[in-house]
Amino acid sequence: MTTIAVIGPGAIGGTIAAWLAQNPALSVTVCARTFFTDLEVATPSGTIVASPEVLTNPAQARPVDWVMVATKTYDVDGTGPWLDQLVGETSRVAIIQNGVEHVRLFSHLVSPERLVPVMINLPAARHAPGRIVQSRHGIIAVPAGRNGEDLVALFAHTEIAASTDADFLSQAWIKLCSNSAAIFPALTLRSTGPVWNADVAAIIRGVVEECAAVGRAEGASIPQSVVDATIESARTMAEGSAGSSLQADRMAGHKMEIDARNGVIVRLGENHGIPTPMNKMLVTLLAASGSPWVVAG
To answer: Does residue 273 sit within a domain?
Structure first.
C-alpha cells in the first residue's frame, strides 16, 4: 500500500486528499492545524467523502512514501516540523502551490532531487474544516521523469487529470501569466468587466505582458495567445464572479500570496533587467492597502 500525507487540508489539499482516499490501495493522512473528523467534497460529479487519519501534531507523524504540500507559499517554513517526521529515506515531496519557485522555496528543507513541483488548476473553496466545494474538474502537470510519472499514477483513479510535461517550466509560467491579472480585482475588490475601459485595459495588458516577458527570459515558451486570452478573460469578467484566492484572502483579512503571484515577476524581472512597472505599482499599492502581506523572499 502506498502511503501519502497531505500537509494543508485547505481547498486544494482537502480536495486532493479526498480524491486520493477513494482508492483503497492508497493510505492517506492529513496534517492539519485544526482537527476534523472527515472530508466531504462537492464535486462536479457528485459529493465524495473520506475519513483519512487526521494529525495535528508533527510528533504523531511517521515517514510516508509521498508528502504533498498544499499550504500557502508564505507557510513554507511552517511545514518544516512535519517534513522532518514525514520524509524518510525513500520519500518524495510534491509541492502543490502557486508560483514558479516551488523547488527554490523548499530546497533548504528537502533535497531537491526529491522535490516534485506541481502546477495545478483546481477551482475549489473551503467553507469549513473538511467541507469543500470543487467547482470544476482539476488539471495537474508535473515535470517529465520517474518522479513525475509516479505522482501521476497516484491520480489514475481520480477525476483530476494529471500528466507529465517535458516543458514544465512553460506550463508554470503560462499559469502565472493567467493568474497575474488577478492582482487588479484583489486591489479594487471589483470584477474587471464592469469597470473596463481603455485605462484598465492598459494596466491589465501591462501586468500580463511583463509576466510573459520575464517568463520568456527565464526560458519559458509563452504564446502571445496566452496574453490575449488572459486580457479577454479580464474584459469579460462579470460582476460578482468568483474572485481569485488573492482577492478572497484579502477580503477575509488573511495573508496574501502576493510575492508568489506578482512579486516574483518584479524580482526576477530585476535579475534580467526587464522593467515591470505595472506589477511593481500594483504590488506596492496592495502592500499599502492595510491588508496583511507577506513577502516570501
So the answer is: yes
